[in-house]
Amino acid sequence: MRNKLQPYRTSIILLSALFIGGGMGIVFPELALTLKPIGQIFLNLLFMIIVPLVAISVTSSIARMKDLNKLGAILVSILLISVIMAIIPAIGILGLAMLFDPAQGVSLDLNQSLQTSVGDIDFVDLLTTSDFAGLLSKSNILALIIMSVLSGIAIGRSGEDGKKISSLLDSLNTVIMKLVAIIMLAAPIGLGAYFASTMASQDPELILTFARTIGLFFIASLIYLTLGSTLYAWVGGGKQGIKVFWKHAIAPAATALGTSSSLATLPVNLRAAVKMGIQEEVADICLPLLVNLNKGGASMITALKIIFIYSLLGLAFTPEVFVITILISLLSAFIIGGIPGGAFLGEIFIVTTLGLPFETIPILVVIGTVTDALSTVINVIHDLNATQIIERINRWAPQ
């Protein structure tokens, strides 16, 4: 039993700390409020590391992709399919959340003014800064990601000099991930304390909104896994594609659910792809790339987190916010989700980009942690779908 729970050990510890903190906030509010500085120290440690973490991780990962230029059309197909498979679930979950509001009238009262208000989102300021110093602020993470991607491309095209920079970035990335790991040792205490102080002055019914939100995600995921996967399999191989997909997708799905890791499931996915009739050379090229790029489950839960928090805070979910939500969800799936060790980076990315209160971070962590395993299942089996489609687009004939 202990071995079966080992992949979920970190999540179980974190969730336990958050639930204990939330319970303390409801039962002993005065005591809980005194714990806020502990949580703030932990969050500040994360905020201090977020800029170098994003800059170094994204730049180094893109720089290492320089040899992929040789793949030509197949790389374009992988990127295009990954983007589409991130946008579709994000739009779908937003539509469901608009029809069935998981907050249902429950509000989060933080007694503070919000940076975000209707109609004040400036896309120019969101995507760029007026000088280099602006990239060093956690409030400009989106601009930092864009510049990091461009820098990575430039390094990858700089020949021998670029290889030297890339090697240095890899070493810096190793160090910064160790630093993140050290900071994360305090996550259960830090987030538990912060969540306790957040819940101290809130309506106990707030807890019920978590259940409704997570339930909505589970229902949406099951629909998307069945109907979406069937549609993708049909696009990739017609009726026969549907048949072979469902015959061989169960093992990767079960492995993903048990390990909560796309990378750990890669060997199983490679074997399943070959059994489905996909050429081995195609699977060997596509699946390792799709592990990092194709994360529809991450996109889906990111979109749900944003609309849920907006509903809790009583903020209008305007068309501008809708577009930014899709963009954030896409980046969470396409780039952020591929940063190893980037714990809570997605949550910080959400609150800093949208100007939301930091008190919402533990709420986002609860939702993300509980739904992580099912999100991984979506990521993994849709990697198989994507490989089917890519093989068909590039006119490789199944053996």
TrEMBL record:
Pfam families: SDF. GO terms for biological process: dicarboxylic acid transport. It comes from the Bacteria. The chain crosses the membrane at residues 12-35, 41-62, 74-100, 132-155, 175-196, 216-235, 307-336. GO terms for molecular function: symporter activity. It is found in: Cell membrane. The keyword Transmembrane helix applies. This is Sodium:dicarboxylate symporter. It comes from Shewanella sediminis (strain HAW-EB3). The lineage of its organism: Bacteria, Pseudomonadati, Pseudomonadota, Gammaproteobacteria, Alteromonadales.
